[in-house]
Amino acid sequence: MRPSKRAPDQLREIVLEPEVARYAEGSCLAKFGHTHVLCCASVEDSVPPFLRNSGRGWVTAEYGMLPRSTHSRMDRKRTAEGGRTQEISRLIGRSLRAITDMPRLGERQIRLDCDVLQADGGTRTAAITGAYVALALAVRHMRRLGAVEGNPLKDSVAAISCGLYRGQPVLDLDYDEDSQAEADANFVLTGSGGIVEIQGTAEADPFSEDAFVRLLGLAKTGCEALTAAQKAVLSADE
Amino acid sequence: MRPSKRAPDQLREIVLEPEVARYAEGSCLAKFGHTHVLCCASVEDSVPPFLRNSGRGWVTAEYGMLPRSTHSRMDRKRTAEGGRTQEISRLIGRSLRAITDMPRLGERQIRLDCDVLQADGGTRTAAITGAYVALALAVRHMRRLGAVEGNPLKDSVAAISCGLYRGQPVLDLDYDEDSQAEADANFVLTGSGGIVEIQGTAEADPFSEDAFVRLLGLAKTGCEALTAAQKAVLSADE
Amino acid sequence: MRPSKRAPDQLREIVLEPEVARYAEGSCLAKFGHTHVLCCASVEDSVPPFLRNSGRGWVTAEYGMLPRSTHSRMDRKRTAEGGRTQEISRLIGRSLRAITDMPRLGERQIRLDCDVLQADGGTRTAAITGAYVALALAVRHMRRLGAVEGNPLKDSVAAISCGLYRGQPVLDLDYDEDSQAEADANFVLTGSGGIVEIQGTAEADPFSEDAFVRLLGLAKTGCEALTAAQKAVLSADE
Amino acid sequence: MRPSKRAPDQLREIVLEPEVARYAEGSCLAKFGHTHVLCCASVEDSVPPFLRNSGRGWVTAEYGMLPRSTHSRMDRKRTAEGGRTQEISRLIGRSLRAITDMPRLGERQIRLDCDVLQADGGTRTAAITGAYVALALAVRHMRRLGAVEGNPLKDSVAAISCGLYRGQPVLDLDYDEDSQAEADANFVLTGSGGIVEIQGTAEADPFSEDAFVRLLGLAKTGCEALTAAQKAVLSADE
Amino acid sequence: MRPSKRAPDQLREIVLEPEVARYAEGSCLAKFGHTHVLCCASVEDSVPPFLRNSGRGWVTAEYGMLPRSTHSRMDRKRTAEGGRTQEISRLIGRSLRAITDMPRLGERQIRLDCDVLQADGGTRTAAITGAYVALALAVRHMRRLGAVEGNPLKDSVAAISCGLYRGQPVLDLDYDEDSQAEADANFVLTGSGGIVEIQGTAEADPFSEDAFVRLLGLAKTGCEALTAAQKAVLSADE
Amino acid sequence: MRPSKRAPDQLREIVLEPEVARYAEGSCLAKFGHTHVLCCASVEDSVPPFLRNSGRGWVTAEYGMLPRSTHSRMDRKRTAEGGRTQEISRLIGRSLRAITDMPRLGERQIRLDCDVLQADGGTRTAAITGAYVALALAVRHMRRLGAVEGNPLKDSVAAISCGLYRGQPVLDLDYDEDSQAEADANFVLTGSGGIVEIQGTAEADPFSEDAFVRLLGLAKTGCEALTAAQKAVLSADE
Question: Any chain C CB within 8 A of the CB of B206?
Fold first, then answer.
């Protein structure tokens, strides 16, 4: 029995609120249960130095946590500089770049700020899932302005965590489960089912290939539901 | 005529949403029009070194802005380290300490994190006004637990900006007014009408004593309304 | 009775020594009793990025304290980075910009370094008062070189602190008074009597509007004397 | 055809040189072809604060690169602070902790410094593989001194990268392959075949589950060879 | 002919003003011509961790430059952090420790802050020479308080620069000479003529042993004069 | 008797291994007994700002220590930022610039990274001696490419430490001697016998001029042997 009483393959309540930030070109507040991540897309007219005069664009991300998003308050500086923060920022950026057609974006950078307002486990997966919506809205905004032609987004992308909890594979770990799980894996999958990123870690004992394949199966189910939620909110907002 | 069509002595729409953060001991989302500041109070069982074994408590604050809270995105590092950020953090802390009875708090520190989710001028005044509510809720939480006896809060505190806009004193400047105002002043007043802090700055030409006295008059009116709003939300939440 | 035996409206001994730094374009050692601040003006031929090609100049300031300027030694790093240091630097810069005609200055930056050699309260007011003299001397130097036409300084500026000490409004607090004052306010006024900046803070209980108006009255008297001292030293040096 | 002419399932020449550092309690220079990583284990008699008085030990790691370990020189500061550096440090630490029996280690910390002397791809996998040898030698050193009883190492651990290069799964990517691979995955496996960590990333298009399973198969083969090399060097050194 | 018209073995005008800082336990403003360094000694009742419970004291120093002490303004941060700053700080500390009897000092640290108010070459030698006076005054202050018994200073210490200027050995280089000298050496000598530190650098071509011996001869003459000046000021102040 | 049983004028075993780094334009692993320093030269096509459009080149150096190069592990951050690190970096750079013909180098910078793999005293002298070899190899590489005409190296340079150990002058101190020496001096000499840099420090009591002259005599002998070793390795590698 999971602490939240959910079935092993049951997601938390997923809410994606679009256009919650007045000034960002695109935004989404992604809620996976009590985990709330505010994702804002900013369109910039310049690219990093290594891409200048390449005709190609770039998508990058920065992840942060508010100091009291967590059960006990975190120091503000550690929050900003920690290795974990940078690791997640890099993961979000890679995930979004995997579904973006850079030449079609043109020499522009879209920067996704993913700030955790409340953390109950799975913040990076909520961030990726919400950041995609913010990115898609920013791209839509650019297309309406005629700034880009065609669709620079080749696919959608979503992410979910799975883990072994008391020996059983379960989907979408919350903090209570995450802190006790024997293994923990994050999967980033595209809307069409391709694998963008897999990160699996044994927290206690090493796990078997078979266990890992079962986690991947759960993740596919979860990401399909997230993809549907992304589509729904983007259609409604159109 | 103000850009927002408000009367000179008219506040923006003020909303104080209590207990918006699941883990903080007290919290409030303060909205002054499009300016939204999330205020969270964290109770800690230790005090800064200079107060150890003094029997007295401490209240401190940290102010931050999300990178895309503003019209154009701000760099995350500059946001965190800038002189303005520290100046406002110190102002919020002083304002709250002015109405706190430190011996009655005991050797505890209450830390207020005030993070700007959206910025349309007046973020420091919204932060102070909301931080008071978060602090009061944290104190109520401590009293319910029996951790403090009596009320460590001697009064309430609220803040508002005033300025000279096209020669006329106006209340509660938004970003459009603030960026064009000839003078800009922030007033921190207690519920019983005492002055806690005054900061007045000439943006263009120096201003007269008479003008300053009129700004102070407007501020009193504004803070009375804010005090009423604070009382309402704290009563409702009781 | 004040610890220094001064009358409530009596300044400390004020000494403004011009041209004390061999290499600076203008300089002044400002002494308010035992508080000594060395103010040096450096003229630079470039402006910050946001002013490039604007035809306008800029005036900025940096405030610092020598580690053993104070009763007990301060750590050198904290001295340099603290929020208080930046807050005062910003105040000095704003005060000087309020009396400077930026287009007439041309695309140049004048940078005022205000370093406290000895601190006995009121360092920011001594810094502003001395920095104006250093600035005026640097401008005179530029005019002699024919680098600017007309006078880029529209007025003079000086600053003084006032406070409530044992219930009584007093002028120009020294450290002993400052550490016990119930309220503390800094006033930056122009030579012609306009208000540039007001910063008032209740250290203990909030204070009344009436008390504040009396502090402002004292400040006017004090700044008139400082303005006279500035004029005297600038005339003598001519 | 791979640039190095290796067969798809062929490792580079693997050399593990034990005890190369005179002062470290254990050390190993791990060479995967032209990739050379110096791994040193330092035994410390204290543990991080969260483990004090727990009776448990800790294993941690720090990864670094010499500025001219790479084709073009890297800035020394960026090398030290980058997100990638911290991410790899954390990965090495987790990998070693997965095979360590912390209560048996006692309240000691073993710190592994993994410094890349020369980088031709796969530095993190060489670091993990070499760090295990250094750790095992440090543990042996402690056992000889009678500082620990029994064996605090429950298993061995090794790591290898695999990737899709021109559509084909290949083992142990060097820099030339890595910079062109369509997908890149790092696998950390124990000597007994358990999975400790999987990190897979699509560099270009997302990849399929089938491709991923083939990469995992290659990794098992590779780690078996690395495990044998570790055993050989540890036996020889005994 | 030297730019300053001095004879090759002629010092600049040397002035050592004692007790210039109101709060420091000992202080000296050392002037070597236009080079002015303010030296303040602070007595602290604790020692660095490596000396705790050793019964021995410590003397350390921090060197700084005011931003506009120099011909063209220096950035404040670079001034504080640069390698040159730390190198000189370390040199001053070593020089003073060489003449201090640490057990006699007891478990106390004396910290010398040497801040350059004006720089015209030879700041490190003026700093050492003035810091000795400040240290001696602080020790005298401690002895008067009965805090130490006997004299913790075994000797005096002074420093001077010499160099090869247009092929000729000259004493006490000013900035004009220093920037053109072929070789530059700093000598730290005790009052009784012992060598504490020698730092010689070829700026252009390497120099010969013979030239070096002549520089050392000049330095002895110079330090004898500085030692006499130190004695004079310490006697007068007694 | 020296701890190492060496004669007073006997160097440790000196090994200079050329071209040990695959990617650097020139490299040398310098071993002075158990002290091992990896020196890599990187040729860059740009010069620091102060040399742009001067037609002159620059040589600079950065010194570092691996955390466990020493008897007890050093913190990685302190290693990188410490004053000692910067002081040695600056010394190496000055030493190499003294024998380089900057106009002949053209507008290029050669950067020497000297990283201590193992430290048993004398790391700075091994670094200078090895860095010269790396520099010479990088210059040879540039000459072979036709990038420079003529020889930008006017001489060779080497360095050695001497000290007073139990009253006796000895050559090339190892860690055991260095930590007990009464005086410690580093000499940087050219192949033709000129003095580039002398740094002598009394660790305990001040030393006499006579003692210093004897240290210089030892240093000459030592540097002659190092110069011969440099020549041998550069000839063999040709």
Answer: yes
Q: Is C155 in contact with B206 (Cβ distance < 8 A)? A: yes
CB-CB contact of E195 with F200 (8 Å): yes
Cross-chain residue pair A206–D190, CB shorter than 8 Å: yes
Residue A32: partners with Cβ closer than 8 Å, 6 or more residues away = A11, A12, A13, A14, A122, A125, A126, A129, A172
D147-176: average pLDDT:
96
Instruction: Quickly list DSSP for C64-130.
Output: EE-GGGSSSPPPHHHHHH-HHHHHHHHHHHHHHHTTB-HHHH-S-EEEEEEEEEE-SS-HHHHHHHH
pLDDT tens per residue, range F96-145? 999 999 999 999 999 999 999 999 999 999 999 999 999 999 999 999 99
Check CB contact of B68 with chain A, cutoff 8 Å. Answer: yes
Residues of E in contact with C112 (CB under 8 A): none
Q: Is A2 on the interface with B (CB under 8 A)?
A: no
Q: In sequence order, what are the residues at sequence separation of 6 or more whose Cβ sits closer than 8 angstroms to the Cβ of residue A30?
A: A15, A16, A36, A37, A39, A126, A127, A129, A130, A133
Q: What is the pLDDT of residue B237?
A: 65
Q: What is the largest CA-CA distance in chain A?
A: 56
Count helices and strands in chain A by DSSP H and E runs? 6, 9
Spatial CB neighbours of E150, under 8 Å, sequence gap ≥ 6: E104
Residues 6+ apart with CB under 8 A from D67: D73, D74, D75, D76, D79, F40, F42, F62, F113
Tell me if A64 is assigned to a ligand binding site. Answer: no
* C141 near B CB under 8 A: no
CA distance B96 to B102: 11
Amino acid at B174: D
Read off the pTM. Answer: 0.90
- For B89, phi then psi, to 5°, come to -55, -45
CATH number of the D14-236 domain: 3.30.230.70
Residue F54 is inside which H or E element, if any? Answer: none
Paired sense of beta strands A168-171 and C109-118, if any: unpaired
Predicted ipTM of the assembly = 0.94
User: How many alpha carbons lie under 13 Å from residue C154 in its C-beta half-sphere?
Assistant: 17
Q: Which residues of F touch D24 (CB under 8 A)?
A: 68
Domain range list for chain E: 14-236
Chain D neighbors of A89, CB-CB under 8 A: 83
Q: Find where tokens 């007011």 sit.
A: C125
C-alpha atoms less than 13 angstroms from C-alpha of B179 in its C-beta half-sphere: 7
C144 is in an annotated binding site: no
What average pLDDT does the segment E155-166 reach? Answer: 97
Q: Which residues of chain A have pLDDT under 70?
A: 81, 237-238
User: Annotated binding site of F for phosphate, which residues?
Assistant: 84, 122-124
Pairing of strands A58-65, A109-118: parallel
- Select from A23, A24, A68 the Cβ nearest to the Cβ of B42: A68
How many Å lie between the alpha carbon of F178 and the closest alpha carbon of chain D? 17
Contact C42 E118 (CB under 8 A): no
How many angstroms separate the CA of residue E112 from the nearest CA in chain F?
17
Contact yes or no for A115 and B66 at CB 8 A: yes
B109-118: strand order across its sheet: B14-18, B26-32, B35-44, B109-118, B58-65
Cα E7 from Cα C155, distance rounded (Å): 50
Q: Quick check: F166 contacting D, CB < 8 Å?
A: no
What single DSSP character describes residue D103?
H
Q: Which of F141, F144, F116, F120 is nearest to F130 (CA)?
A: F116
CA-closest candidate to residue B21, choices D72, A34, F187: A34
Question: Please, which residues 8-27 of chain F have a Cβ atom closer than 8 Å to chain D?
Answer: 21-24, 27
Tell me: pLDDT of C238 over 70.
no
Cβ pair C70:E21 closer than 8 A:
no
